[in-house]
Amino acid sequence: MAIVVNLDVMLAKRKLQLKELSEIVGISVVNLSILKKSKGKAIRFTTLNSICLALDCQPGDILEYIKDK
Amino acid sequence: MFYLIYKLTSHLTGEPILSLLLFIIPITFLIVNLILRKRIQFKSWFLSKLNIFLDKEESVLISDIPPDLLYEKVLLVIDESKFKRMDSTVENFQVLATTSPNFWTWGENIYVAISKKNDTMSEIKITSVTVFGSYSWNRNKKNHQHFCESFEQSLTI
User: Fold this and answer.
1) Could you tell me the residue range of the domain that residue B105 belongs to?
2) Chain A partners of B65 at a C-beta cutoff of 8 Å?
């Protein structure tokens, strides 16, 4: 997939666990795990907004575009 | 109404015991099914090919989510859909959900089994089966459709 979710990188930088983020943003651990593994089909702006707010980062810190070879 | 049908068949066949059996057998079958439907252990009873009195429909969904995560996701999808979660086993990733009975139907059982297809893909086998009746009047297909739509929607996080 061309779009990679770097949620685990940001979580490590902020020294946060997935469960803690789940409690802050109000999204289930299962859904965050799927997002972290880049297995989701789409991401809502509201989800992106709450994750950026919780991790104090920009959408570009979480999402990355990698060109397919 | 049942009494009238009983009287009619009794009159037509001239065998009151035979007419009575015609009612007792299906009613017993229905009661047994209603008792057994709530436990996943009786899956083989409902899905058996020999059980010709129940209509079954099987379909397969392929996903790139690992089976353990997919199992949790399916539980979440079922809890947020019109289905009612009845039973589940984490050991072999199986879930049993039901639809509510109403005026038209006694409800259906939906068996979901998750397994690993290959290194990257997982398989979700969805089987919808009637609790009573050898024809589902398209309800099995609608259940499958509803599950697939709920699953697809849930992937928008």
Assistant:
1) 37-154
2) 34, 37, 39
> Do B157 and A40 count as a contact with CB atoms less than 8 A apart?
yes
Name the residue facing A47 among B66, B155, B157 (closest C-beta): B157
Whether the model pTM is above 0.90: no
Whether ipTM tops 0.95, in short, is: no
Instruction: Tell me if A44 and B155 make a contact (CB, 8 A cut-off).
Output: no
Which of B63, B73, B157 lies nearest to residue A27, judging by beta carbons?
B157
Domain that includes residue A37, residue range: 3-65
Q: Does A55 touch chain B (CB under 8 A)?
A: no
CATH of the domain at A47: 1.10.260.40
Helix (H) or strand (E) holding B80: helix B67-80
B15 belongs to a structural domain: no
Tell me how close the Cα of A35 comes to any Cα of chain B, in angstroms: 7
Q: What's the full length of chain A, in residues? A: 69
What pLDDT band is residue B1 in, cutting at 50, 70 and 90?
low
Q: What is the pLDDT of residues A31-46, one digit of tens each?
A: 999 999 888 889 999 9
Please write the tens of the pLDDT for every residue from B36-88.
Answer: 888 888 888 888 888 788 888 888 989 889 999 999 999 999 999 889 998 88
Q: Give the CATH number of the domain where residue B123 resides.
A: 3.30.530.20
